[in-house]
Design goal:
12 helices, Lambda_DNA-bd_dom_sf, 6 strands, DUF5753, Endonuclease, Chain A
Length: 284
């Protein structure tokens, strides 16, 4: 699987560039709305990604902002890329948000999980058990599609230029019996295998470490190759809502939390030994 130019990341970059051009022109959202006889919320929704940017509106904004021909050409190409479809669009009926689009082009992924194994490292049986447990009213077709999407996502780790993946797992993740002993043995074997991948670092945060900075719940930090064009984001989710955090101070706060977790967790080698010990607790 070759690395792709994610349309989700391109759409975000386009929105950021439009905001930059507006600021360079010395205009507020109210100024733009007044000049173009638009409602103020239209400008805000375009820049926040809550409204689809039509080609005619984009050209109108270019005119107002005094955009150069070179900038117009570059941003028009960016808009074309933003309108393309990623592989995950085929699963739009079962995927709740744009996270996979942001993940697809990340150069590094740092994640803390306190409840279950992260999707990128789940086996099929474990994924099915987790999805079934969380959606007890879902029919078999929905479960199958969710599992298929999760398995397709894992191709990220075997593409020609995979992202660096750093995972910190709370001990509860590997202690909780999901799907039965055989499923857990297979899942723990998958985690041990991941520990041997050159782009993966995996640490276990043992119960003995006590209280820690991320007791509020799991999160993922996504970094990109060019931080100036695509600044890092933090993804926080639970069963009822998801948040994508872009504010620099918020991202820094989560980086500090992740550093704290890494410092308290077992080192990668000791974590691999710990996983082997836990596997012995699930008899054949």
């Amino acid at each position: 699987m070759a690395q792709i130019a994610s349309p989700t990341v391109r759409a975000r970059r386009l929105r950021r560039e439009l905001a930059r051009l507006r600021n360079r022109a010395g205009l507020t959202a109210e100024d733009v709305a007044r000049s173009l006889d638009w409602h103020r919320t239209k400008v805000i929704r375009i820049e926040n990604g809550h409204s689809r940017l039509m080609r005619k509106d984009m050209q109108t904004l270019f005119d107002l902002y005094g955009t150069s021909d070179e900038e117009r050409e570059s941003l028009t190409a960016l808009a074309r890329q933003a309108h393309q479809k990623g592989w995950w669009s085929a699963y739009g009926d079962v995927l709740p948000d744009n996270y996979l689009g942001f993940e697809a082009e990340a150069s590094s992924i740092s994640t803390f999980e306190s409840l279950y194994v992260p999707g990128l490292l789940q086996t099929e049986d474990y994924a099915r058990a987790i999805i079934r447990a969380g959606r007890d009213t879902a029919d078999d077709d929905e479960v199958d599609r969710r599992v298929a999407a999760r398995l397709a996502r894992k191709a990220l780790l075997v593409r020609s230029a995979p992202p660096a993946l750093w995972v910190v797992l709370d001990e509860a993740v590997v202690r909780r019996l999901v799907g039965g002993p055989s499923v857990m043995r297979g899942q723990l074997a998958r985690l041990a295998e991941a520990c041997r991948l050159p782009m993966v670092e995996l640490q276990v945060l043992p119960f003995a470490a006590g209280a820690h900075a991320a007791m509020g719940g799991p999160f993922t930090i996504l970094d990109y190759a060019d931080a100036a064009l695509d600044p890092a984001i933090v993804y926080v989710d639970n069963d009822t809502s998801t948040m994508l955090l872009e504010d620099e101070k918020q991202v820094l706060r989560y980086r500090l939390m992740f550093d704290h977790l890494r410092a308290k967790a077992l080192d990668p080698d000791r974590s691999a030994d710990f996983l082997a010990e836990v596997a012995d607790d699930y008899p054949d």
